[in-house]
Amino acid sequence: MNIDYIEDFIKVAECQSLNQASDLLNISTPALSKRIKHIENYFECDLFYRTSRGIFLTKNGEIVLEKLLIVRQNLKNLKSQIFESINSNIRLGLLPSFSLYKLENSQKKMLNNNIEIKIENNTQILLEHLYNGDIDVIIGDITSNESQKLFYKYIYSEDYMIVYSKNSRLIDNDSIDVDTLKNYKIFVLPPPLAILWPL
Predict the structure, then answer these.
(1) Strand pairing category for 137-140 and 90-94
(2) Distance separating alpha carbons of residues 27 and 12, to the nearest angstrom
(3) First vs last C-alpha separation in the chain
(4) Per-residue pLDDT reduced to its tens digit, 135-156
(5) What single-letter DSSP state applies at residue 57?
């Protein structure tokens, strides 16, 4: 018997309607009816009887339902247990511009652990992975993010660098302040600045 059919059986038993159960399971009613028939063939007996008012469990169906509820819970528990053992590693999302050498001194212990790394081109994509649960932590520039659902921890900062051509009038200045730069068209690329942990 297909393991997915367990949920199908339970849902039909709860709804007492193939149509309602198929809507909730997002499959067609004929497909669900076929799955229920597969389950009955597996147990070699009728598990439901059908009337104009709906579909109801037989005595054997009630026994099967009781045991399948236990099986479903055991499968959920097993999945959680396996998930925890697999995900004891940190799943880290990074921008391509970030180098792990920046963490070597302050986070040496973290680097010695197993880390799965996912690299994306922008922080917004990393945030989507974080919200979806695909990664645990991201390192990126989150200065424009105002989410209250995230915990932010600054792990390092970088100075901005101004690059201009040798023909620029700025070359004659010994030092350049922000007020001077206001008179020029400049393009700013922010470095990755922060680490995010979900609450």
Answers:
(1) parallel
(2) 12
(3) 40
(4) 888 877 666 666 667 777 776 6
(5) E
